[in-house]
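BUG: 3D viewer hangs when loading the predicted structure for this chain

Environment: internal workstation, default settings.
Expected: structure renders.
Actual: progress bar stalls at 90%.

Input used:
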Amino acid sequence: MSTLLIGQTGGPTAVINATLAGLIAEAQQQSTITAVWGMRHGLEGLLGEQFVDLSSLTAAQLELLAQTPAAALGSSRRKIAPEDYPQILDLCRKHDVRYLALIGGNGTMTVCQQLAAQAAAADMEFSVIGVPKTIDNDLAVTDHCPGYGSAARFLALAARDTGRDLAAMTTFDDVLILEALGRHTGWLAAASALGKSEPDDAPHLIYVPEVAFDETQFLDDAHRIHSRLGHVFIVVGEGIRYADGTFVGQQGAPRDTMGRVLYSAAQGASTYLANLLRERYGWQTRPLRPSLVGRDFSACVSATDRAEAYQVGQAAARHLADGHSGVMITLERPTDQPYTTQPGMVSLARVAGVEKLLPLCYMDDAGTMVTPAFYDYAQPLIGDPLPPILRL
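Structure tokens produced before the viewer hung:
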């Protein structure tokens, strides 16, 4: 028996199950794969031998799965310790698991690399492949990551529509600060500009972690725009930081088991900066933290994102059946006009431990607005054009 075992790890996305569906559907067509199992809650479930048989899911069930948000198998953020790797491999031997596919982000790719290396060193007949998933869009080599396009679409709509709300309430509200997810990168914060059709549309200012935050300049920028428009809409990445590396609004915040700031328990950049503007100028300010809402929001799924998520799942099953191991599936963009992509493959050694930051060429000289190059890159990823609006 040659079983394919699939896990979902880290933060879910709105299209992570499309990847799972693609994996299962393609595995069902591969003669070398005789069974498909899922692990409950990632490698945490594997270590606890909590499995679900996915082999007999029908085409109709897989179609529904591909439209289901969040991680259908359950996810986990359990940090894998060095002593866990031999146990994982032993359990795979015990259950005749020949193929392992993990759908995840940066940490997952490091785990995949370690498992593949240790299996090879033990001369074990065992193939491991990493399948990309992250709204942060921070995996190296791949043009972009499944999950990002849908979260970007949500941010574009959130900024555009709440920007109209702010403009309508100019006689009462002065400032709205939208805080985008992205621990170290500004890909999502930048995407908030994708709904702009006029220069004065929201957002007016965007701050990303890749550009050191200057509080004095921030106050001046906000005042300049407010003086002209009577309001100002600002987007900040949750991980923006000062030049010394200190995170804005997160001083003294508690941390999780992996040493990362618990944003849910921190004041947050948006709240801190809203208070700062209120104290300095006496403005009516509102922080807005959609947080996890945009990560799994099925109403804002990009059709392009869902299709590509399914394709990387299919590619993963094919490459496993062909005997590939120690690799991650990528998305390659052969052409921009028209926009096309195709699945590729890269060694995990080039991906594990590497974080792809938002290139500075995607931000203007002031570091507060995206450039046309970013629109060219990101616009195709959010799928169909955003619904039009009428201005009176």
